[in-house]
Specification:
By secondary structure, this protein is mostly helical. Helices cover 87% and strands 0% of the residues. It has two helices and no strands. The two termini are 36 Å apart.
Length: 83
């Protein structure tokens, strides 16, 4: 039998989180390999493009994290005022 709060819920959550983790991990490994290849290049143009791409990537990740934290904090504030 399935009971709320039992092992079924935990395994269900793990089946969602685990593939997402591996997809994100492989994406970061690909980006790291591209950065290593770009900065290892002899061409100054390739290095400059890689540097601009890296800065853009870091800014985008920072923006996503800040937006997520902002939504989380505002949801906590709304929950506190409803009580």
């Amino acid at each position: 039998q399935l009971k709320p709060g039992g092992y079924f819920v935990l395994s269900y959550l793990l089946s969602i989180v685990t593939p997402i983790f591996f997809i994100v991990w492989s994406l970061h490994c690909f980006i790291l390999a591209a950065l290593i290849a770009g900065f290892s290049s002899q061409s100054m143009i390739c290095r400059a493009i890689t540097a601009v791409w890296m800065v853009t990537y870091v800014v985008n990740i920072g923006t996503i994290l800040m937006e997520t934290m902002w939504k989380y904090m505002t949801s906590l504030n709304h929950a506190r005022y409803r009580q």
